[in-house]
Sequence to fold (168 residues):
Amino acid sequence: MEAFEYGYDIAERLSILEVGAENEYTDADLFSLSELMRDHHLLTTDYKTFALEAAYVAYQGNVLADRVDAFYRMIENLQFDAFTLEQVMQHGEELPEIEEFMDLWIAYLGNISSRRAKRLLKEAVELGNNPDQLLENARKYYHIHPSLYEQYIDDNIHDIKLVRVFLI
Fold:
């Protein structure tokens, strides 16, 4: 755990790092690490690999109580939109306390209204693969994520039609 804590500390610092240069004609333009790697190709490291490693150590380097917030902050700081929890789960060793994390992760994302949170929440409930849990989450977070109801209907349309047939 100690090695992951050190790795998380380094990854967190890199994820918020901004580099700038100024000259006599312009003010300093600040660039994040993601902009330097992805947009300007100034660093040769594969950004996807870096992002997965950073998210992995954010998960492993924090106790359960702090893990969800640290994990989400890392994703936000990295600005890597192709990111999925499943990729992190497959990236290294098996993640400890994943069931407990998933419940906290869904609750955390359910209260955030960003596009990224919506995408990550959709993935989290799909990974749970539990229609009853999806419906419960849709009821809980409908005010921020009404698309959970749509996801529930899409996932269970066949069963819903069968229930209607039997009710008639």
